[in-house]
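pinned: reference chain
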Amino acid sequence: MPITRYSRYEGTLDDLDMGELMRMLQDRLLESGFGRDPFDPDPDARPTLEDLYQAIAEALVSNDLIDEQTLSEALDAENWMDSELGRMVRELAQRLEREGFLRPGEGEEPGMGEGGVAGTGDPGRSTFELTDKAIDFLGYRTLKDVLGASGSSTVGAHDTDRRTTGVETTGETKPYSFGDVLNLDVGETFKNAARRGFEQGRLQLEEADLMVAQSEYHSSCATVVMLDCSHSMILYGEDRFTPAKRVALALAHMIRTQYRGDSIRFVLFHDSAEEVPLNRLALSQVGPYHTNTAEGLRLAQKLLARQRKDMKQIVMITDGKPSAITLPGGRIYKNAYGLDPLVLGETLREVGACRRHGIQVNTFMLAREPELIAFVQRVSAMTRGKAYFTTPATIGRYVLQDFQSRRTKLVN
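pinned: its structure tokens
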């Protein structure tokens, strides 16, 4: 299996490796909106080049990559972007684009200049996007940080309790059945024949004597990750959305490199729900939203219905109770106070639909209110899924290790 390795480079600013710069920027890039007001009238606003320039400058300062004189000149300048530090930041942004980590945002108006993301346009209005290379890098870094030395599962598949005949054996044998790979366990086969004794000095081998070695059956899995991006995910002095995005990126990287037969899709749920591509997930933000869990589950089921996999599951990361549903006419009904019976009933109907379609729902709850615990336990019981009550600091380890250790039963 090909392995992607990212190495750390130590040297002067002019020779700074862009992978190392991305490492310095990863926490800032994954923030839930660069500190944007979640009640901003434009909830779909994306980080701008000005945000990127500030993030690069902060990284240079915090990693002692610029001298005090350069920093002092920037602080004294009327516009720090006109200083030597500003020039360095623009050049580094250009290098990030040239090396394939960034690209101008879609639909950008002309005027960004020949330098691409670091051109002559208004940095306060121009936006940027992370490329697949950047997403892969951030996923790799997060996966490495989260799992550390905890080990990994069998490369390329999910273990199950089903056994089949093949080349990679488990040490277990079974009587041969028509259609099995003829991977004979010679010793056990001859033992069966020897129990009947010799005839004219020879063993008489019959079909019933044949024993074949078993190997583990590896299944494929279709996963939809549902991320709650309601306003509560950044309330109470704690950013819960950024750790959730980091986990999603790490999970995507692990599936791409270790579970090649799997698929993964991402759904953001709030007042409604929508699928987001991986390259847009990293820069997605929390908004002034409620929690329409039912709509998220409905969309996740549609995505999973298109997948032909042995296993189908929904990984739901949330911190609050359902507080909104979509009515038949398309209007959004909202009630943020307590578990509204109408909202709860519609949500549980979608959970029941998941059960009927054989979809397991594993819920990772970032809050511990008694009514939320009861709701999550009910969801898990209905779909035979799992419920984890965790924190932003530990959610990554729970999600990734659960994905690796998952088992399923397939009946012949």
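why pinned: The longest helix spans residues 241-258. Residues 1-11, 109-115, 148-170, 407-412 have pLDDT under 50 and may be disordered.
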